[in-house]
Amino acid sequence: MSPWEIKRTETFLAYLKKHKNNHELLSALSKKIQHLQEDPFSVGGFLCGHLHGFKSTRLIKNFRLMYHLDEENNIVYLDAVDHRKDVYD
Question: How far is CA 28 from CA 1, 50, 86, in A?
C-alpha cells in the first residue's frame, strides 16, 4: 500500500503558527505525521457529535491533533492542533 498524502488546512496552519515555539509539540507532531502517512486508521479515534467524521490523537500532555481522512484518494487532512480544551470548539 502506498503511503498516505498529508495535507495541511488553512485552519491547521493558523493553529500551528500559535505554537511555533513549542519544540516538544512540534517534535511530537512530526512523529505523529509519519505514523499517519503509514496507517492513519491505527492512529487516534473517531469523534462524535458536531465533529463526526473527524479523528483526534494525543500529542503531548493535553495537546491534540484533529484530522480527517479522504479514503478514496488516500489523503489525511490535518485540521487543528491545540490544547484539548480549545481544539474541539
Answer: 25, 27, 19
For 33-88, write each residue's pLDDT tens digit. Answer: 999 999 999 999 999 999 999 999 999 989 999 999 999 999 999 999 999 998 88
CATH number at residue 11: 3.30.2310.20
Q: Dihedral, CA atoms, 43, 30, 11, 44, nearest 10 degrees?
A: 10
Cell numbers of 43, please?
Answer: 492512529
- Range(s) of the domain holding residue 27: 5-87
**Which pLDDT belongs to residue 78?**
98
d(CA 58, CA 45) in angstroms, rounded, equals 10
The number of folded domains in the chain is 1
**Is it the case that residue 1 has pLDDT exceeding 80?**
no
d(CA 63, CA 57): 9
